[in-house]
Automatic annotation (TrEMBL):
Biased composition (Basic and acidic residues): 399-412
Pfam families per record: Cupin_8
Bias (Low complexity): 360-380
GO cellular component terms, A-Z: cytoplasm; nucleus
Alphabetically ordered keywords of this record: Chromatin regulator, Dioxygenase, Iron, Metal-binding, Nucleus, Oxidoreductase, Transcription, Transcription regulation
Domain of life of the native organism: Eukaryota
Segments of this protein annotated with the region Disordered: 350-412
Compartments (UniProt record): Nucleus
This protein's name: JmjC domain-containing protein
Residue ranges with Polar residues bias: 381-395
Family classification: Belongs to the JARID1 histone demethylase family. Belongs to the JMJD6 family.
MF terms (GO), sorted A to Z: histone H4R3 demethylase activity; metal ion binding; P-TEFb complex binding
Source organism: Pleodorina starrii
Amino acid sequence: MINASSTSCQPSKFAEAFGDDERERKIRKVKRAVRSELSTSKGDWYRNACAQSDICSTTGIEDRIPRVHWKDLTPEEFAERFERPRIPVVITGLADDWPAFRDWTPERLRQLYGEHKFKVGSDDEGYAVRMPFAWYLDYMFDPLHGGRDDSPLYIFDGTFADREGSKPLRKDYEVPEYFREDLFRLVGEKRRPPYRWLVLGPARSGSGLHIDPLATSAWNTLLAGRKRWALFPPGTPRCHVLPKEQGIEREAVSWFSKVYPRATRSDWPTARVVDLVQAPGETVFVPGGWWHAVLNLDATVAVTQNYVSTANFERVWKHTRKGRPKMSLKWLAALERERPDLAALAHDVEDRGEVECNTGSSSSSSSSSSSEGSSDSGGSTCTNKRSGEAVTSQIIKRVRADGDGIEKPNCR
Ligand SMILES: O=C(O)CCC(=O)C(=O)O
Ligand SMILES: [Fe+2]
């Protein structure tokens, strides 16, 4: 597992090869490419002193998301209790036998992938900015970089399973049975939208508030560290949860320190925030249309995939039709062959003229990246199905009251 104390800043092969000055120059170059608005010499990267704040404290967070062990949840039950009604849930135990759960430690990953370049963000032109993994680890555990930056660089790599140097990582985990239907598979590996990411970063890195692209649902399995999540149900107006105000940037730290406190006040005008602290080995199911922001409380390693199944097909179809019209035709042709029932549904949508005008791809992430992307009152983990169901039914009411799952402007 990653843990700052066991992962000292041992000099990497790169540091030895290039020397500290060279490494420092290269890290700064990457930082400038990813966030050109921040100077790397005037302290802009740590101007808000987030590393000295209590932003990563869990005091007062009430995690009421139900926990269910996979042995107590069949795929049919998952679809019925959580997927169709669009209720977030945490499934435990899925990663217990994954090599990733055992082997994705910084030192092991450094040995195997130290020279491979992973994506740590995008530049101003939208091109991926990549960094050799060994340098990234040096950055991440450097007290004057990842240990100090307000919103550190974050590996959010959507091509890890396709690139020669990192491909073997894909063999270290298994897509859980609940999420295997994966209807975008029919479009073909080359044409389908990005759908799987390796996600790794230090405390305070994370993903700003967003809805996942094309109304897809997601699962996210944490292999090390803790992630704090804040979720809002489908239909929550963007202007409340993502206000366009000076000083509110798209970073997770910025959202959690400036917007989140408003969402806990009694005069908050819209749906209540749903809190969650994800522990290692836990898999979060994020139904399509849910807003979510994620802050890493420690150094974390996770794998996440987005998917379309029979349960969310209609919504995803509407968004794909509008957002990816060419691809949607290829998809429809494949559906005619493989899933005529869903192709018929797609034609119905078309006949009713119900194509979505908001593609739902309001994703944003940490400084560095973009993914295209219950307990008792003490906040402890709930392993009890009954209390899970109580929370579930409250959330169902909210989802129904809030409409069809796509953010709607309602801010006058
Ligand atoms: O782990 C994270 O930073 C959040 C991932 C996420 O929300 C996404 O992949 O869409
Ligand atoms: Fe997401």
